Amino acid sequence: ELKVEQNPLFLSMQEGKNYTIYCNYSTTSDRLYWYRQDPGKSLESLFVLLSNGAVKQEGRLMASLDTKARLSTLHITAAVHDLSATYFCAVRPMNYGGSQGNLIFGKGTKLSVKP
Amino acid sequence: NAGVTQTPKFQVLKTGQSMTLQCAQDMNHEYMSWYRQDPGMGLRLIHYSVGAGITDQGEVPNGYNVSRSTTEDFPLRLLSAAPSQTSVYFCASSYLTSGGRTQYFGPGTRLTVL
Q: How far is CA A83 from CA A44, A50, A61, A79, B105, in A?
Protein backbone atom coordinates (compact mmCIF):
# COMPACT_ATOMS: atom_id res chain seq x y z
CA GLU A 1 0.00 0.00 0.00
CA LEU A 2 1.25 3.43 -0.91
CA LYS A 3 1.59 5.61 2.16
CA VAL A 4 2.86 9.10 2.80
CA GLU A 5 3.07 9.90 6.47
CA GLN A 6 3.72 13.30 7.93
CA ASN A 7 4.86 13.93 11.45
CA PRO A 8 3.68 15.79 13.42
CA LEU A 9 0.12 16.44 12.23
CA PHE A 10 -0.22 19.45 14.51
CA LEU A 11 2.54 21.78 15.55
CA SER A 12 2.28 24.79 17.79
CA MET A 13 5.46 26.78 18.12
CA GLN A 14 6.62 30.13 19.33
CA GLU A 15 8.02 32.81 17.12
CA GLY A 16 11.76 32.62 16.81
CA LYS A 17 11.99 28.87 17.39
CA ASN A 18 13.18 26.19 14.98
CA TYR A 19 11.39 23.00 14.11
CA THR A 20 11.29 20.20 11.55
CA ILE A 21 8.38 18.48 9.82
CA TYR A 22 9.01 14.94 8.62
CA CYS A 23 7.59 13.18 5.59
CA ASN A 24 8.07 9.43 5.21
CA TYR A 25 6.88 7.53 2.18
CA SER A 26 6.55 3.85 1.50
CA THR A 27 7.23 3.60 -2.21
CA THR A 28 10.01 4.30 -4.63
CA SER A 29 9.70 7.84 -5.86
CA ASP A 30 11.67 10.17 -8.04
CA ARG A 31 9.99 13.37 -7.04
CA LEU A 32 8.76 14.93 -3.83
CA TYR A 33 6.77 18.11 -3.41
CA TRP A 34 6.01 20.42 -0.53
CA TYR A 35 2.90 22.58 -0.60
CA ARG A 36 1.47 25.20 1.68
CA GLN A 37 -2.26 25.73 2.24
CA ASP A 38 -3.77 28.68 4.08
CA PRO A 39 -7.24 28.21 5.62
CA GLY A 40 -9.93 28.19 2.97
CA LYS A 41 -7.37 28.59 0.19
CA SER A 42 -5.81 26.46 -2.49
CA LEU A 43 -2.39 24.81 -2.43
CA GLU A 44 0.72 26.82 -3.14
CA SER A 45 3.84 25.06 -4.33
CA LEU A 46 6.89 25.51 -2.12
CA PHE A 47 9.52 23.01 -3.28
CA VAL A 48 10.10 20.23 -5.74
CA LEU A 49 12.90 17.81 -4.79
CA LEU A 50 14.21 15.61 -7.55
CA SER A 51 17.17 13.65 -6.33
CA ASN A 52 18.80 12.09 -3.33
CA GLY A 53 20.45 14.71 -1.19
CA ALA A 54 18.54 17.57 -2.79
CA VAL A 55 18.19 20.61 -0.59
CA LYS A 56 16.18 23.72 -1.38
CA GLN A 57 15.69 26.85 0.66
CA GLU A 58 13.27 29.73 0.47
CA GLY A 59 13.33 32.27 3.25
CA ARG A 60 12.88 30.53 6.59
CA LEU A 61 11.98 27.18 5.02
CA MET A 62 14.43 24.53 3.91
CA ALA A 63 13.48 21.18 2.42
CA SER A 64 15.67 18.13 1.94
CA LEU A 65 15.28 14.69 0.46
CA ASP A 66 16.86 11.33 1.31
CA THR A 67 15.54 8.83 -1.24
CA LYS A 68 17.35 5.90 0.35
CA ALA A 69 15.57 6.49 3.66
CA ARG A 70 12.40 7.59 1.83
CA LEU A 71 12.35 10.68 3.98
CA SER A 72 11.96 14.36 3.36
CA THR A 73 12.18 17.11 5.94
CA LEU A 74 10.88 20.66 6.00
CA HIS A 75 12.90 22.73 8.43
CA ILE A 76 11.59 25.98 9.80
CA THR A 77 14.11 28.50 11.06
CA ALA A 78 13.18 31.32 13.45
CA ALA A 79 9.46 30.91 12.87
CA VAL A 80 7.23 33.92 12.33
CA HIS A 81 3.44 34.17 12.52
CA ASP A 82 3.11 34.43 8.73
CA LEU A 83 4.29 30.83 8.43
CA SER A 84 1.11 29.59 10.13
CA ALA A 85 -0.56 27.27 7.60
CA THR A 86 -0.96 23.61 6.75
CA TYR A 87 1.99 22.03 4.99
CA PHE A 88 1.62 19.00 2.76
CA CYS A 89 4.21 16.75 1.28
CA ALA A 90 3.33 14.76 -1.82
CA VAL A 91 5.16 11.97 -3.57
CA ARG A 92 5.11 10.94 -7.20
CA PRO A 93 5.39 7.17 -7.04
CA MET A 94 7.24 5.42 -9.78
CA ASN A 95 5.21 2.83 -11.66
CA TYR A 96 1.89 4.04 -10.25
CA GLY A 97 -1.28 4.74 -12.17
CA GLY A 98 0.39 4.95 -15.52
CA SER A 99 0.85 8.68 -15.26
CA GLN A 100 3.77 10.85 -14.44
CA GLY A 101 1.55 13.39 -12.78
CA ASN A 102 -0.22 11.44 -10.09
CA LEU A 103 0.68 12.41 -6.56
CA ILE A 104 0.11 10.76 -3.21
CA PHE A 105 -0.36 13.32 -0.46
CA GLY A 106 0.35 13.18 3.23
CA LYS A 107 -2.38 14.29 5.63
CA GLY A 108 -0.72 17.61 6.24
CA THR A 109 0.92 19.32 9.20
CA LYS A 110 -1.04 22.19 10.67
CA LEU A 111 1.46 24.73 11.92
CA SER A 112 0.52 27.49 14.32
CA VAL A 113 3.16 30.05 15.19
CA LYS A 114 2.35 32.06 18.28
CA PRO A 115 3.94 35.34 19.40
CA ASN B 1 -2.55 34.04 -17.53
CA ALA B 2 -5.54 33.17 -15.36
CA GLY B 3 -3.89 29.88 -14.38
CA VAL B 4 -6.31 27.21 -13.22
CA THR B 5 -9.89 28.36 -12.74
CA GLN B 6 -12.75 26.47 -11.15
CA THR B 7 -16.48 27.14 -11.02
CA PRO B 8 -18.54 27.28 -8.95
CA LYS B 9 -16.74 28.20 -5.74
CA PHE B 10 -19.55 26.90 -3.56
CA GLN B 11 -22.38 24.47 -4.25
CA VAL B 12 -25.10 22.80 -2.22
CA LEU B 13 -26.83 19.76 -3.66
CA LYS B 14 -29.52 17.40 -2.52
CA THR B 15 -28.88 13.69 -2.49
CA GLY B 16 -29.45 12.24 -5.93
CA GLN B 17 -28.90 15.45 -7.86
CA SER B 18 -26.25 15.64 -10.54
CA MET B 19 -23.93 18.45 -11.43
CA THR B 20 -20.70 19.34 -13.19
CA LEU B 21 -17.72 21.05 -11.63
CA GLN B 22 -15.86 23.10 -14.19
CA CYS B 23 -12.10 23.38 -14.50
CA ALA B 24 -10.11 25.29 -17.09
CA GLN B 25 -6.45 26.20 -17.55
CA ASP B 26 -4.77 28.54 -20.01
CA MET B 27 -1.19 27.30 -19.66
CA ASN B 28 -1.40 24.63 -22.37
CA HIS B 29 -0.67 21.90 -19.83
CA GLU B 30 -1.11 18.34 -20.99
CA TYR B 31 -1.81 16.91 -17.56
CA MET B 32 -4.93 17.74 -15.56
CA SER B 33 -6.39 16.10 -12.49
CA TRP B 34 -9.14 16.29 -9.91
CA TYR B 35 -8.56 15.81 -6.18
CA ARG B 36 -10.87 15.87 -3.22
CA GLN B 37 -9.84 17.10 0.20
CA ASP B 38 -11.62 15.99 3.33
CA PRO B 39 -11.01 17.29 6.88
CA GLY B 40 -7.80 15.91 8.38
CA MET B 41 -6.88 14.24 5.12
CA GLY B 42 -4.52 15.05 2.37
CA LEU B 43 -5.72 15.28 -1.18
CA ARG B 44 -6.91 12.13 -2.90
CA LEU B 45 -6.83 11.72 -6.65
CA ILE B 46 -10.22 11.16 -8.31
CA HIS B 47 -9.48 11.18 -12.06
CA TYR B 48 -6.74 12.48 -14.26
CA SER B 49 -6.00 13.15 -17.90
CA VAL B 50 -2.72 13.14 -19.79
CA GLY B 51 -4.15 14.91 -22.82
CA ALA B 52 -7.28 15.62 -24.80
CA GLY B 53 -9.32 12.47 -25.25
CA ILE B 54 -7.41 10.52 -22.60
CA THR B 55 -8.64 10.03 -19.05
CA ASP B 56 -8.05 7.50 -16.31
CA GLN B 57 -9.11 6.72 -12.78
CA GLY B 58 -7.28 7.73 -9.67
CA GLU B 59 -7.57 6.52 -6.11
CA VAL B 60 -11.26 7.38 -5.47
CA PRO B 61 -13.14 7.45 -8.82
CA ASN B 62 -16.50 5.97 -7.81
CA GLY B 63 -19.45 8.32 -8.35
CA TYR B 64 -17.54 10.65 -10.66
CA ASN B 65 -17.10 10.93 -14.41
CA VAL B 66 -14.71 13.03 -16.44
CA SER B 67 -14.03 13.85 -20.05
CA ARG B 68 -11.35 15.86 -21.80
CA SER B 69 -12.44 17.16 -25.17
CA THR B 70 -9.95 20.04 -25.22
CA THR B 71 -6.56 20.74 -23.68
CA GLU B 72 -8.03 23.61 -21.66
CA ASP B 73 -11.07 22.04 -20.00
CA PHE B 74 -11.50 19.10 -17.65
CA PRO B 75 -15.00 18.96 -16.11
CA LEU B 76 -15.89 16.63 -13.26
CA ARG B 77 -19.42 15.21 -13.19
CA LEU B 78 -21.22 13.93 -10.15
CA LEU B 79 -23.78 11.48 -11.45
CA SER B 80 -26.00 11.10 -8.38
CA ALA B 81 -24.72 13.11 -5.44
CA ALA B 82 -24.33 11.45 -2.05
CA PRO B 83 -23.51 12.98 1.35
CA SER B 84 -20.16 11.14 1.24
CA GLN B 85 -19.21 13.41 -1.65
CA THR B 86 -19.32 16.48 0.56
CA SER B 87 -15.80 17.77 0.20
CA VAL B 88 -13.56 20.43 -1.28
CA TYR B 89 -12.60 19.65 -4.84
CA PHE B 90 -9.38 20.87 -6.40
CA CYS B 91 -8.42 20.78 -10.04
CA ALA B 92 -4.72 20.83 -10.96
CA SER B 93 -2.63 20.97 -14.10
CA SER B 94 0.99 20.63 -15.12
CA TYR B 95 3.27 19.84 -18.02
CA LEU B 96 3.41 16.10 -18.37
CA THR B 97 7.07 15.54 -19.00
CA SER B 98 9.24 17.90 -17.09
CA GLY B 99 12.14 17.94 -14.72
CA GLY B 100 10.62 19.24 -11.57
CA ARG B 101 7.79 21.40 -12.80
CA THR B 102 5.08 21.52 -10.25
CA GLN B 103 1.33 21.12 -10.42
CA TYR B 104 -0.77 24.26 -10.29
CA PHE B 105 -3.95 24.05 -8.26
CA GLY B 106 -7.22 25.87 -8.79
CA PRO B 107 -8.98 27.74 -5.98
CA GLY B 108 -11.28 24.84 -5.15
CA THR B 109 -15.00 24.13 -5.14
CA ARG B 110 -16.68 23.57 -1.80
CA LEU B 111 -19.49 21.08 -2.25
CA THR B 112 -22.09 20.14 0.32
CA VAL B 113 -24.52 17.30 -0.32
CA LEU B 114 -27.57 17.24 1.94
A: 13, 24, 9, 7, 20
